[in-house]
Design a protein that fits this description.
β8, α9 and β9 form a beta-alpha-beta unit. The protein has 2 domains: 170 residues, 3-Layer(aba) Sandwich (Rossmann fold), CATH 3.40.50; 149 residues, Rossmann fold. α4 runs parallel beside α6, α8 crosses α13 and α11 packs across α14. It is an alpha/beta fold. The strands form 2 sheets. It has a 6-stranded parallel β-sheet, sandwiched between helices. It has a 6-stranded parallel β-sheet with strand order 9-8-7-10-11-12, sandwiched between helices.
């Protein structure tokens, strides 16, 4: 890699590390990989929690961009829809004026629906940034196929993780299930809690995460068998996750959730919803089970499907499924591609 990079993306929340999400974890993982590979970078943080407010964040990001763009060779924007619509058009426009190459990396998996349902201005904004970026990266293969219509230099950069703990692949099934993520409706929290009340007392279902919506709090959980265990700092996720048998993620929309990849790194199978993105990474009855969105009964039946006889097969499938999502492998591919543009 011969280029010096200006990376624009969301860093961890300074005041409260439990306020996190997949975008922050992925961006921090990339920074870690680039440090390991000794790639020179300048970093611009877009996490609005680390600024006074959203307006302050936007102006600070743009100021840092203008301050540093002349000292780098390539500008790379990493983020969600808000970063694309509000930051990317300005960054791309001025990067081109200053003769800097640009790449975009879109996190999460519903960008096609955002584009299709957007008004005229939103659609033109998205088309402008995709067409004028030198190279685009998407988290899911179906988004790569969809958005290649605007730029042939469109590639797959999946969610990634490191295998930091070598798991015990001969462990016993003990009916221990877990959810880890934001406590919010679109994560399937209502269906998860309903399913928990159908389970027998010999099952454990624990929930970790911070309350993203006011509807949910510790008092709310007292009506259900699921146990709320608090929020986790990102560095504690693996050590806690390894104590469970199966991860449950009944979301209404997702890209490639990092928590699924972390589960795979430990050989832990998953129960997830039958979304286009999740079908790319969860092989039904091999690495986990797929259920319909907003279906508590199917969720309950999926929990019961796991037993002592089939669990070792799921462990093996989950463990092998991690290989394409190894962080350093994908970061090297990312560098090779942007170095060629």
């Amino acid at each position: 890699m011969s280029k010096k990079l200006l990376l624009i993306g969301p860093r961890f929340t300074i005041k409260d590390p439990t306020i996190t999400g997949g975008t922050m974890i992925l961006f921090e993982q990339l920074l870690k990989d680039l440090s390991t590979l000794k790639i020179p970078v300048v970093i611009v943080d877009t996490n609005s929690y680390n600024y006074k407010n959203f307006v302050h964040a936007w102006f600070s990001v743009m100021f840092q961009f203008f301050k540093n763009v002349f000292s780098v060779d390539h500008v790379s924007i990493h983020g969600t829809i808000n970063h694309y619509i509000l930051v990317a058009p300005f960054v791309i426009f001025f990067s081109k004026i200053f003769k800097k190459s640009v790449s975009l990396r879109k996190f999460a998996g519903n960008f096609d629906k955002v584009y299709e349902k957007g008004n005229f201005i939103i659609k033109k904004d998205i088309e402008y940034i995709l067409k004028n970026s030198d190279i685009n990266f998407f988290e899911t293969k179906y988004l790569v196929d969809y958005f290649s219509q605007f730029n042939k230099n469109t590639f797959w950069f999946p969610n990634v993780r490191e295998r930091l703990i070598e798991p015990k692949l001969d462990r016993e099934f003990k009916k221990r299930f877990v959810f880890m993520g934001q406590i919010r409706k679109e994560k399937g929290m209502d269906e998860l809690l309903d399913a928990s009340n159908m389970l027998g007392d010999d099952y454990t279902l624990d929930v970790y995460g911070y309350f993203f919506e006011k509807e949910y709090d510790e008092e709310y959980f007292k009506n259900y068998k699921a146990n709320y265990k608090g929020a986790l700092a990102s560095e504690d996720v693996l050590s806690v996750l390894q104590n469970y048998d199966v991860l449950i993620l009944p979301s209404y929309r997702e890209g490639y959730p990092g928590i699924i990849l972390e589960a795979y790194s430990l050989g832990i199978p998953v129960i997830a919803t039958n979304l286009p993105s999740l079908k790319e990474i969860v092989e039904d009855k091999k690495t986990g089970l797929l259920v319909d969105v907003k279906n508590s009964k199917e969720l309950y039946e999926a929990v019961l499907y796991f037993n002592k006889d089939n669990y070792s097969r799921f462990i093996e499938g989950a463990y092998k499924a991690f290989e394409p999502f190894d962080s350093i492998r994908q970061t090297k591919k990312f560098l090779e591609l942007i170095d060629g543009h």
